[in-house]
Amino acid sequence: MKKELRKAIIAGNWKMNKTPVKTKTLIAELIPLVKEVASQNSGSACEVVICVPFTSLATAVEAVYGSSIKVGAQNVHFEASGAFTGEISAPMLKEIGVEYVIIGHSERRQYFGETDETVNKRTKAALTAGLIPIVCVGELLWEREADITEEVVSRQIKLAFAGISSSDAAKVVIAYEPVWAIGTGKTATAEQAQDACKLIRDRLTALYGKSVADSITVQYGGSMNAVNAAELVAKEDVDGGLIGGASLKAEDFTEIIKAASDGQ
Ligand code: PEP
Question: Do strands 132-137 and 173-176 pair parallel, antiparallel, or not at all (unpaired)?
């Protein structure tokens, strides 16, 4: 069993939801619930991260102060500064207290031209600034149906990590998110999630060796909720989850945190 070698992380992806005022309200609901889960698990819940819209980041950093909840962004530019109107850089995020950043989410790949190359550049920029990247990979429905999930995910992993040293790779979190399961209510079975997360770990082993691969957190994401979370996170290679819809309701999100904390 290698599960104990790595941190289970439950990260909420709020997407384009919640104004700063609503952010404050949801965090105020979450803090005592997360504390209660920790108290039921000898003082520590799994790592809990909320990835909020850019306009809510400063509010969120202030609101989580004194709690164990970490704050993440949902995207980052790969340059540190310059003529990139409308973009936000990794040093900007770091300076306001952001700790995590989602990179290459399928919605960014589908709607905003994200490629494996830009995922790689953003991952490097995040690492350079001291942010923890949550790198998203996953196949489209037709790719799964054509039985090329393995090729697609292997390629995404190889390109995302191109030119990244093993000491930096060990800091990265990966989210396996089959695109057909995101926001659709259609969850991968626990076996499908395990198979893909194991495949990712095998690819990381080929790139960096077993001890680095065994230390990297590989989450599952795609319609994870209070009901199906326990079965998914119990799998050997599934180290928590990236949660969209269910992260917007404090009770549902807490149930998922509880499942990942119990399963540690
Ligand atoms: C996501 O946005 O990364 C996600 C997994 O969304 P949902 O949980 O709503 O499917």
Answer: parallel
